[in-house]
TrEMBL record:
It comes from the Bacteria. It holds the Pfam family Sigma54_activ_2. One of its GO terms (molecular function) is ATP binding. Gene3D superfamilies: 1.10.8.60, Homeodomain-like, P-loop containing nucleotide triphosphate hydrolases. GO terms for biological process: regulation of DNA-templated transcription. Residues 68-203 form the Sigma-54 factor interaction domain. This is Transcriptional regulatory protein flbD. InterPro entries: AAA_lid_NorR, Homeodomain-like_sf, HTH_Fis, P-loop_NTPase, Sigma_54_int, Sigma_54_int_dom_CS. Keywords: ATP-binding, DNA-binding, Nucleotide-binding, Transcription, Transcription regulation. The gene is flbD. SUPFAM superfamilies: Homeodomain-like, P-loop containing nucleoside triphosphate hydrolases.
Length: 280
């Protein structure tokens, strides 16, 4: 997220409160942390928050989706933030293992983020088991926005205030109908999507009131490479869609079933079929 502040926001949701408290407890340690959750829930913001609460001298950032220009030789202690660790190539995993094994005092503290369950990738031999154990000493799982109803109004108010400051505005507020429109959306893009929706409303506001007509949603599913092609059977399309939706939701079957519009029982039966066929 672009401007989320874990200190400024009052958190009431029990799971998120526990995540924040554990983050503060671990900030001053050297333990390697793995932050897991759907796209847009705030993994990178939490990672940076943990860094600011630590005594680390410097922060290095490695994006596993675009790691070609990263120079491992310049890493000298400090903290290494690894974004989208689940997307690390074999070569990048090998480079990270070399960094983990440094014994010359230049080994950094590792804080990683992942959308997918790395344990599942280890079982599928897509991720090094030894690297997993080194980088995932402590897991922190961030809940999706739809599951944080206790915090929703606080989050909306915070983002609305920050958006106004960013764009040189003040005095804007949501009408009851505007808030209801926000509150009934399921937020597939989580807090990042909420930021986008509210910032657009602030920028386009013609009066001090933001009503439902100013709330525009874009139901975009991020980073799903649905490699469908004409002539492909419906069963194959269904299988790929189910598998990739599970990847998007970090193997959260309940969430995947909701996104697919099927029951959890139907999803479970489909996965059992794929296992018997040797697909999973």
């Amino acid at each position: 997220m672009s401007y989320f502040d874990f200190d400024a926001l009052h958190i009431e949701d029990r799971r998120m409160h526990e995540v924040k408290q554990l983050s503060l407890q671990l900030a001053s340690t050297q333990a390697s942390l793995l932050l897991v959750g759907e796209a847009g829930v705030g993994k990178t913001s939490l990672a940076r928050y943990i860094y600011t609460k630590s005594r680390s001298a410097r922060l290095y950032c490695l994006d596993c989706k675009n790691a070609g220009g990263f120079d491992f030789s310049r890493v000298d202690g400090g903290t290494l933030l690894i974004e989208d660790l689940d997307c690390a190539s074999v070569a990048l995993q090998n480079d990270l293992m070399k960094l983990v094994e440094r014994a010359d005092g230049t080994r950094p503290r590792f804080i990683s983020t992942s959308r997918r369950d790395l344990r599942a990738l280890v079982k599928q031999e897509q991720f090094r088991q030894d690297l997993f154990y080194k980088l995932a000493v402590v897991h922190l799982e961030l809940p999706r926005l739809e599951d944080r109803r206790q915090d929703f109004q606080n989050i909306v108010n915070f983002i609305l205030e920050v958006s106004q400051i960013m764009h040189g505005k003040s005095g804007l507020r949501l009408t009851a109908e505007g808030f209801d429109r926000l509150n009934t959306w399921n937020w597939p893009g989580n807090i990042r999507e909420l930021e986008n929706v509210l910032e657009r409303a602030v920028v386009l506001a013609k009066s001090s009131l933001i009503g439902p007509e100013s709330i525009q949603f874009e139901a975009v599913v991020e980073d799903m490479d649905l490699d469908f092609a004409p002539g492909m059977s419906l069963s194959e399309v269904e299988k790929r869609l189910i598998i990739q939706t599970l990847e998007l939701t970090a193997q959260n079957r309940t969430r995947a079933a909701q996104m697919l519009g099927i029951s959890i029982r139907t999803l479970r039966n489909k996965l059992n079929e794929y296992k018997e066929a040797g697909v999973l």
